[in-house]
Design a protein that fits this description.
Number of strands: 21
Oligomer: single chain
Distance between the termini: 85 Å
Radius of gyration: 39 Å
Shape: flat
Length: 692
């Protein structure tokens, strides 16, 4: 009877709480729903506006990317044209040989409509749309032609008038042909407008946005939609006004299809005033904001209704406050129980007290298990001599643990050290000890550190596996490059050599009774075979230099710097400050690749006149210093512009070097100043017992 009465006494308040607080809970729900509805509408509006801003930001980023891509594509076309302008066929000139070279270039560049060669007075002498013997007449689009004659610089023209030969409105890219300081010819390629539109579409235009390219005169030369109706015609007034006001920005105006659009535009660099424009319908951009306003208005009306219902419920349920207090008390009790459960889960961390004066370590059972001594009774702390704990630490890690304890006590800094524990019958296990010196009052005993011990073996194992995988991948890449280089040199190189010898024999045969034209053709083929052989040899060396395997790092670096200096006209010096002994293959390969990537960065960014490379093998480490006298930069400003990111993301592009060094536990230090130059300090540890 007593038990049943006691049970009934417990249930009765719960039943009263259940019955008496229903309406209060409903009232609370209504009270919570009102701000939630209003807040939801407000958040929806903010998110819609943010979505619109994100869409605009994405459009700006895409427009910038597309502008850079299009400008890069046009610059690549100009580079090919400049290389052709330096052709030896224009030295004599040999128009037949030049015509043949131009045909091959056009076949390799499907966007080219034709290749044209004209005298400075504008008279065409070569046009691939006609044979070499036909009369061609003057060139079209004299504006861009005269600009080349006047400036003797490459010029990118706009969309020109219909040509007398092609019958089309084409876009001209022109470069001067200068020999002995005299303008001999003007070499041009003509791009059809649909070819420029193809470049625009292939550059990755934002989905749903209409893209347009406009030349310096305000004429449309490419469009992702309705090309036929727009190309060659002046752009709308809003577009032209925006270009006159600023090289980049936004504007709003109607499209060819009649819809109002918001347009982001960017002026292309080094294109003579071309600009790329992307527009999205204003209604599409503003649709989420309009819907969010509707949601906010509806939520406001619903909130008013809920507020009226809340007033009625609160007036009827004031008597239920006490039951509500009891409910909150029960909720707090359950929360306390959950916190206790969380504390119990945290018991996987061991706690310890390290007394460096008494040389005693006191710890929980979990700490004893992790640090390798026998624990006391379950649930009680145990103490051992500090030397016992240190003896269980891996000999390679004892010094680091002792130094960390000394520094924490001397400087008052937090203790945080990772080391391996060796226990009989177990594999070495990584643990981490984190703690601090207590600062309770001025009479706190000296030499005490309180901390916790955690098991980090799974994380360390994962890191070791990742490191081993990265090293194997690097070795596999080098082996594959070595194999390809060998095949290029041994197989393809021999084939090209045979071709060159055969052509030499053919030249001797033709010299006995062949025409001069056939002889020139053989000479050209022989020169082409020589170029192919040199290119294959250069590619083989870039993939895997044979000197690195056969002669070692010193000779490989000397060959690299000598060839690089001759190829690019930049003085390069190499200095070895130690004996030229062979190093582990991984270290030699890493040093060679790091110097190779550094030279590439110098060529791209530094505008240097000289580069020096210093290599020194010290006790236990290899040091490499790469220094140039180029433009340099302010590393702090570059880091701020990159949003505080690591220096690997600065404009020098050092991520590849840092990745190679991470596989060898190496370090990279960068020093640079504007106008002075840049210096890279590379340090790679050399293992005492290198792997075979």
């Amino acid at each position: 009877m007593n038990v049943r009465a006691r049970d009934t006494g417990i249930r009765r308040p719960e039943l009263q709480l259940s019955r008496g607080s229903r309406r209060t809970f409903v009232a609370l729900a209504l009270a919570a729903a009102i701000p939630v509805l209003l807040l939801s509408g407000w958040v929806a509006t903010l998110m819609a506006q943010q979505q619109r801003d994100l869409a605009r930001s994405a459009a700006v980023a895409s427009a910038t990317r597309v502008a850079e891509r299009v400008a890069s594509d046009i610059a690549a076309q100009i580079a090919v044209l400049e290389a052709e302008a330096a052709s030896a066929t224009l030295d004599r000139p040999d128009l037949a040989a030049f015509y043949a070279e131009a045909v091959r270039l056009r076949q390799a560049h499907p966007l080219w409509e034709t290749v044209e060669l004209a005298r400075p007075d504008g008279a065409q002498i070569v046009n691939l749309l006609r044979s070499l013997e036909e009369e061609l007449g003057p060139t079209s689009d004299r504006t861009s032609f005269d600009a080349v004659v006047r400036t003797r610089q490459p010029v990118i023209g706009g969309i020109g008038p219909a040509g007398s030969i092609s019958g089309k409105r084409l876009v001209a890219l022109r470069v001067p042909v200068i020999r002995d300081g005299t303008l001999r010819y003007v070499l041009s390629i003509r791009l059809a407008t649909n070819a420029v539109s193809s470049i625009l579409r292939d550059a990755g235009a934002p989905e749903g946005w209409v893209g347009t390219i406009v030349d310096a005169e305000g004429n449309t030369i490419a469009r992702t939609r309705a090309e036929v109706e727009e190309l060659g015609h002046p752009a709308n007034p809003a577009l032209q006004a925006a270009i006159r006001n600023a090289p980049n920005g936004f504007y709003t105006g109607p499209t060819l299809e009649g819809a109002d659009v918001e347009v982001v535009y960017r002026t292309l660099q080094h294109t003579g005033g071309w600009s790329v424009h992307f527009g999205m319908p204003v209604a599409t951009l503003n649709a989420p904001v309009s819907r969010s306003y509707a949601v906010l208005g509806g939520g406001s009306f619903v909130s008013i209704g809920l507020a009226l219902a809340l007033v009625g419920l609160v007036g009827r349920d004031m008597a239920q406050r006490r039951a509500g207090e009891q409910a909150r008390f029960s909720l707090a009790l359950r929360s306390s129980e959950e916190q206790g459960a969380v504390a119990a889960e945290a018991a996987e961390l061991g706690t310890l007290r390290w007394d460096t004066v008494a040389h005693r370590v006191t710890g929980s059972p979990r700490a004893a298990d992790l640090l390798g001594w026998t624990a006391a009774a379950e649930g009680r702390d145990s103490a051992v001599d500090a030397d016992t704990v240190l003896q269980a630490v891996d000999p390679e890690d004892r010094g680091r643990l002792s130094e960390a304890l000394r520094r924490s006590l001397a400087e008052g800094t937090p203790l945080d050290v990772e080391f391996r524990v060796i226990q009989e019958g177990r594999e070495p296990r990584w643990v981490r000890v984190a703690g601090r010196v207590p600062q309770l009052h001025e009479h706190t005993p000296a030499g005490l550190i309180y901390g916790v011990v955690s098991d980090i073996e799974p994380r360390k194992r994962a890191e070791a596996e990742r490191f081993a995988l990265l090293r194997r991948l690097g070795e596999a890449q080098e082996n594959e490059q070595r194999r390809i280089a060998r095949e290029l040199h041994d197989q393809v190189g021999q084939t090209v050599t045979g071709l060159s010898l055969g052509l030499k024999s053919m030249e001797r045969l033709l010299a006995r009774g062949a025409t001069a034209e056939a002889g020139r053709q053989v000479e050209w083929l022989q020169s082409l075979a020589g170029e192919i052989g040199r290119d294959i040899h250069r590619a083989a060396v870039d993939l895997r230099p044979t000197a690195l395997d056969d002669l070692g790092l010193r000779e490989a670096l000397a060959t690299l710097l000598r060839d690089w200096s001759q190829r690019h006209g930049i003085r390069a010096d190499l200095e070895f400050l130690s004996e030229a002994t062979r190093l582990p293959a991984a270290i030699e390969t890493a040093v060679y690749r790091i110097v190779q990537e550094a030279l590439t960065n110098v060529l791209k960014h530094a505008r240097a006149a000289s580069v020096s490379v210093s290599v020194e093998k010290r006790a236990g480490e290899m040091r490499v210093v790469i220094e140039d006298d180029g433009a340099g930069f302010n590393a702090d400003e570059q880091r701020e512009r990159a949003g505080g990111e690591a220096p690997a993301k600065l404009r020098l592009g050092l991520s590849g070097i840092r990745e190679r060094l991470s596989l060898l536990s190496g370090t990279l230090t960068l020093e640079s100043s504007p106008g002075i130059g840049t210096t890279l300090f590379v340090t790679i540890p050399i293992p005492e017992h290198p792997e075979t």
